[in-house]
């Protein structure tokens, strides 16, 4: 099933409602990663990668710190655990790419894999998690959650280089029952 159509009913005119916010960010992240894959010139490749990496990092951070804990329930537990493993895989690819010279012959193939895995992960969330969230949380709760996520993402962006937060978390997936790892300070 097409991920976009499967959540069409969930998307509201309010761009800050939690599910709408995340779905819109999915489409933007896919577009940003496609731009990295398509770029041939190394300096511009790096610039595009850093932008996509920062946006992917704050998206994952908001899900792990706020969205997933807020939607944790018996019926969502399995998909949340799988999603956290997928996040780990994305963080590892991101860490690899950030450490890679943009002229390296593995740069573009790795970017393609990151794009494919990101698209797959978004489809899983949109097809399997978000429909359950729509049943679990009412519109007011989702609106409040969306505002909290946006604020947190803004704060992480302002703190600078949120991609470093993601690139540091490659040991194991975030546990569902633990406080998310705080970001370490970077000069
Ligand atoms: Fe996610
Ligand atoms: Fe997501």
Write a structural description.
The protein has one domain (15-168): Four Helix Bundle (Hemerythrin (Met), subunit A) (Up-down Bundle). It has helices at residues 3-6, 18-38, 42-70, 77-98, 107-136, 139-159, 163-168. With 187 residues, the protein is mostly helical. Helices cover 71% and strands 0% of the residues. One fe (ii) ion is lined by residues 22, 26, 59, 63, 122, 125.
Kindly state the number of beta strands: 0
Query: What is the average per-residue confidence, as pLDDT, rounded to a whole number?
Result: 91
Work out the count of structural domains: 1
Assign the CATH architecture: Up-down Bundle
Q: Radius of gyration over alpha carbons? A: 16 Å
* Helix percentage: over 70%
Task: Profile the largest sheet.
Answer: none
Give the ordered list of helices and strands. Answer: HHHHHHH
What is the CATH first-level class name?
A: Mainly Alpha
Distance between the termini: 45 Å
CATH third-tier fold name: Four Helix Bundle (Hemerythrin (Met), subunit A)
- Categorize the overall geometry: globular
